[in-house]
């Protein structure tokens, strides 16, 4: 996976994606960290919260059958690795972004964290020994 490709994709985000990105970034205050166009399992999802294993996609309004099949396969790849995918049409992001963010927040709250939201694990030899 190419870091350069991810950077290039970030530069050509649609207006709707940028609008949603601004809202997702504000969720950091609640402990939810999203990345945009980050490499994941051979793909570059629009947005991903690794701590809650949540992928968020903004789909264009003219989805073709071939694209829909590709998206379904990609969602299956993510699901096999423990990720949930939420897809929103650009129209929903444009017309009711509050509802879109509400659905995302519900999914974040329902998902179990994959790691502690704060702090790092102790170094070897530090912390409590439970053995």
From TrEMBL:
InterPro entries per record: DUF559, Endonuclease_DUF559_bact, Restrct_endonuc-II-like
Coiled coil regions in record: none
Keywords annotated in UniProt: Endonuclease, Hydrolase, Nuclease
Hydrolase found in the keyword field: yes
Ranges of residues in domain DUF559: 4-108
Family annotation (Pfam families): DUF559
SUPFAM superfamilies for this protein: Restriction endonuclease-like
GO MF term set: endonuclease activity
UniProt name for this protein: Very-short-patch-repair endonuclease
């Amino acid at each position: 996976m190419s870091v350069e490709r991810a950077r290039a994709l970030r530069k050509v985000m649609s207006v709707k994606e940028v609008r949603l990105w601004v809202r997702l970034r504000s969720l950091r205050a609640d402990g939810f960290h999203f990345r945009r166009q980050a490499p994941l399992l051979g793909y570059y999802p629009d947005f991903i919260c690794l701590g809650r294993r949540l992928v968020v996609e903004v789909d264009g309004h003219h989805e073709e059958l071939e694209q829909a099949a590709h998206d379904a396969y990609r969602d299956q790849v993510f699901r096999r690795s423990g990720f949930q995918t939420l897809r929103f049409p650009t129209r929903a992001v444009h017309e009711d972004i509050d509802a879109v963010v509400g659905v995302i927040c519900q999914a974040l709250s329902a998902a179990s964290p994959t790691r502690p939201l704060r702090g790092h694990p102790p170094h070897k030899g530090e912390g409590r020994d439970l053995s």
